[in-house]
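== Polypeptide entry ==
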Amino acid sequence: MNLVELLINLVLAIPMAIWFYKDARARDYMWYFWVFVPLILILLVCYIMLRPKGNLFKCPHCQKAVLEELFVCPFCRKNAKRECLNCHE
């Protein structure tokens, strides 16, 4: 999923939220529930589809789960991988 698909989802979500608001408000129902829950669910689905894919491993310094492709741990900001002195991988 790319940025265009994300924008399309948001363009569809906003009119849906407006419709939920108007309909729930007209029925004297919990409008805030029917507006925010669908938006949260759409954002959750977008996050799951757009997040970086890959395996996680433990940082050798802070022991927190880090994406395998990262060289620097986002938590402790130390090198998460060790470089081989022979082949430089």
Remarks:
- The first strand starts at residue 56 and ends at 58.
- Strands lie at 56-58, 65-67.
- The chain has a mean pLDDT of 80.
- Residues 3-26 form the longest helix (24 residues).
